[in-house]
Amino acid sequence: MKILVLTQYLHTNYGGLLQAYALQKVLKELGHDVKTEDRRPVKKNNFEKVKFSVKNRLKILLGKGEFTPSEKDYRVISQYMSEFVRKHIETTLPIYGPDADMLKSYDYDAYIVGSDQVWRPKFANGLYNYFLDFAKNSSKKISYAASFGVDEWEFTEDETKRCRDLIRRFDKISVREESGVGLCHDNLNIEASRVLDPTLLLSKEDYKSFLDQDQVIKDPYLLCYVLDKTEDKHIVEKRIAEKFSLFTDTAMPKHHSKYIRKYNVKDYVFPSVETWLSKFYNANFILTDSFHGTVCSILFNKPFIAIVNKNRGGSRFFSLVKIFGLEKRLIYNSRDLT
């Protein structure tokens, strides 16, 4: 079958890229012709570009707010991630937002929505597209490990009604979290199955083929893969490192692009997916507030502590660790670290 997978942006998100790669790999091994939609933010017009540039300059001059990379900067920052997509994920032509003309041109035997938080309104660029509003009636419509990300219902009344109508056209519905089964039942009047995140459909051996041999570190280390840094998380990091006599390494850029640019743009470049995986594989202990950071810790059989990241969706963490009886590996803050 010709299959199109719809997921979140293929951008500087290691977990997002790996789940897209894993789902496509599994489908291709089943004998299908698969592409993943290359959805991107809506392009800015000239006026919006000038406005964007002025606002960024003001932020830098005033030392306030968050710096947002320009399109040129972003190409540098994401260069290794983009290379991974080019090499390992077969995509459609870029589609900028919910482009109606592009969507009408799609002609696939089946559409699969998932994984990641595709059904979280504030993250979805074209929510109804992720409920396949554009797909022909003759095509199969499936959700695989679609995620709401949270336990509570975030849809408006109008969004709920529209999505309730659209999901009735699906042939099969599955979600990633246990809470998602309940949200589908209670709000969309539909029964959903709970399945694994696509990254867990592959084995440790599948990921070992990506390992960067140059990333082997002889000294024991704590890998700190923290997306949203706080002083409290730093306390957790120090306590673990001191407990096991480990030095700390990271798998993030030297500086995060959300802060005012005080450094060269090269300091914001994300390490390659190969480097990222190697850091997890070779670590002696892992501290993370990332869902897919937790996934990789489990895949590579590493001792870990996961700090629940509520802003990015806390229910994902609970649902994952419960499968393995690892609930004690979750904490909310440094006070929970026994």
Overview of the structural elements:
37% of the residues lie in helices and 14% in strands. It has helices at residues 14-29, 46-62, 71-77, 79-88, 100-104, 157-167, 178-188, 204-208, 231-244, 273-282, 291-299, 315-324; strands at residues 2-6, 33-36, 39-40, 95-96, 110-113, 140-146, 172-175, 193-194, 221-225, 247-250, 285-288, 304-307, 330-331. The strands form three sheets. Strands 2-1-5-6-7-8 form a six-stranded parallel sheet. It has a five-stranded parallel sheet with strand order 10-9-11-12-13, sandwiched between helices. The chain is globular.
List the helices and strands and how they pair.
Elements: E1 2-6, H1 14-29, E2 33-36, E3 39-40, H2 46-62, H3 71-77, H4 79-88, E4 95-96, H5 100-104, E5 110-113, E6 140-146, H6 157-167, E7 172-175, H7 178-188, E8 193-194, H8 204-208, E9 221-225, H9 231-244, E10 247-250, H10 273-282, E11 285-288, H11 291-299, E12 304-307, H12 315-324, E13 330-331
Parallel strand pairs: 1-2, 1-5, 3-4, 5-6, 6-7, 7-8, 9-10, 9-11, 11-12, 12-13
In short:
The protein has 338 residues and is of the alpha/beta class.
Radius of gyration: 20 Å
How far apart are the termini? 51 Å
* SSE pattern: EHEEHHHEHEEHEHEHEHEHEHEHE
Strand segment count: 13
- Which structural class fits the helix and strand makeup? alpha/beta
How much of the polypeptide forms β-strand, as a percent range?
5-15%
Tell me about the largest β-sheet: 6 strands, parallel
| Distinct helical segment count | 12
Mean pLDDT: 91
Order of the strands making up the biggest sheet: 2-1-5-6-7-8
Shape: globular
| Helical residue percent band | 25-40%
